[in-house]
Amino acid sequence: MESTAADGAADKRSSRRSAFKGVSRSTIGDGWRAVVYQRQSLVELGYFDSEIEAARGVDKANLLFARKYHGPAPELNLPDSRLSDDGHEEECPVRV
């Protein structure tokens, strides 16, 4: 069976997907891109070396936004993601 251009495009798309919400393969370099949508705006969290680091960044950003705006507890990619009591976390990629 011959491969078509459509098959190649589908393979390329699937190689950029992640199992984690808000995480995708970077189109520039070999890193992982993390984004969240908050208050109807896209917030670019940045690029990470690993898929897990990017997922943790998404979780921490969502936790910070939920804490700041008194929203419901967000759905997390990794159940062990949490913030310290004062809401500061060195690894968190965004400030709200």
Task: Explain what the structure shows.
This protein has a three-stranded antiparallel β-sheet with strand order 1-2-3, with helices on one face. The longest helix is centred in the middle third of the chain and has 18 residues, at 51-68. The protein is built from two helices and three strands. It has a single domain, classed as AP2/ERF domain (GCC-box Binding Domain), CATH 3.30.730.10. The chain starts with a helix and ends in a 28-residue tail after the last helix. A hairpin with a 6-residue loop joins strand 1 and strand 2. 31% of the residues lie in helices and 19% in strands. With 96 residues, it is an alpha+beta fold. The protein is globular, with a radius of gyration of 16 Å. Mean pLDDT is 76; it is low at 5-13.
